[in-house]
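S2.1 Query sequence (Xylanolytic transcriptional activator regulatory domain-containing protein)
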Amino acid sequence: MIHTSFSQYLHLTVLTEVILTLNQGDPGGITLVTDVSHSNWLDKSGHLFLRKLRRDSLGNDELTYLHQKGVFSLPHKSVSDVLIRIYFHHVHPFFPILNAKTFLAAYEDGAYDRIGIHLLWSVFLAASLFVKEETLRDAGFASRKDMKRAMYQKAKALYDMQYEKSKTTLIQAVLLMGFWYSDTQDRTGPLHWIGVAISLCQSAGLHRKSSLGTNQHNTDTEILWRQLWWACVYRDAWYAVGQGKPMRIAIADCNTEMPSVKDCEHMYDGVEETLRAKYLPDHMDLLSQLWVDLLKLTVVLIQITITMQRDGNPGDSRALEQKEEEILACRQNCIALMNNTDRLAQIHVHHVELYCNSTLLVLYRPHILQANAKRSREIATPFDSFIEQRAQTAAARINGILAQLIASDAVDVCQGIICMALIPPMQIHMLNHLSKDPLVRQLHHHQLEICMVVMKELKKTYFGAEIIYKIFENAKAQIQSQALTLETHAGDTQSLAQGSGHIQGVMPGPSNTSNDHADQPDDVSAVLQSLMRQHDYFDIEELDFLNFPATSEIE
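Output structure tokens follow.
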């Protein structure tokens, strides 16, 4: 049954007066022709402001297709209400791309045409990652993945039919479609939708500071545009690092200001108290501060990766200390917020602190690789050992955060980005599997197992977690097998308990080395180096040595 709010889309034409933008790039380029007549043309941003034209709506064949896909049949209101509440509790704090005031007012009034059906299904898609069993049963789904697939198929059908006419709404919907990922052969996973969103943003000029006026409507629009653009930057950066891909965004070419806490507050100011209590989390001011801190951290992460990609070396100790200070400043803000007793606020604080420590490990990682190479030639320096100790400390802090998430029963509501953020500490733990020190070896074995336990739980929701889990599971098996083979060939006479790295399964390190990892077998080193390389460790097609299947449909 078609919801009455969508009836306007069934007419032959739609006429709107929403202003669009078209950015022509350099203000001294083509837009100079249009701007030169203005007295302040030198201050123009390069945006051309256009009104929407009258456009034909979809034909009967397209509408029939969408009917068959069920896009006009929304979930029961009780289920929809839960999904909207989940969205604003678990997605919106670290992805504030909706104006809560206008969205919630339209939703509660049943004016779904003011929201956009494409955007609404995309919101349901993102929220499906955090639903509980009771809601799944009420909605008729067996698992989160089943629900996510159903919501995605409807959003994708609307995207394919070019149903949404508002470019801003389309960008919002596409960004949320980036929460979809099914298998390694899926060509429309997160990276695809991030790329689409970035292209739409750049074509609309959202990456450049605009020259809009200062009336209330324009203020709302500019704030929303800033949030949309920086949401693209955030997702692009973390997926690029997590999957070993280059960023699509050249941050040096963008001058859109980073959203402020005040911007975030503006997007939910004025929400009616009844709607605030029904849908919004408490401590929105704290969550807004965390989002801004996360964006600052993301900028540091981008700078680190750009330096490595451009120069191919980790830089000197002074550059490292400067970036370290910036990361620790973000972490210090998290520590200051940890006294909050609200469970949801604590979960989000834990996320940002985990991301801070993961970024530290991305900073340390190339130095650790250099230290390993030096140690094999017995030329390691005290600075190398110092960095290794810092890396182990950061990895241990991440394990402490995971323990707190487990204790608070919060693993099932972890963000998807956490899958990428856990790769660096797991690399550190894996590297120390071959330490000559039995205590260090055993410690990192257990710390890796905690990460694996969390990743195994995340597999229920995120396909990316399935990939990471199998990579490290297979790497552990190969390293252990190769280490045991080396011992056999060397005629090791140690007892079975010692030779297998204790009954608990801790892998042995070479017993005749004078330095940690100094005499690793070549095959073991190859596995470790592949897991530690900054750009290749998440490329499934290049991980043949792990025997990971190219396609894996996870139900």
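Residues 7-19, 499-515, 517-521, 534-555 have pLDDT under 50 and may be disordered. The chain is about 60% helix and 5% strand.
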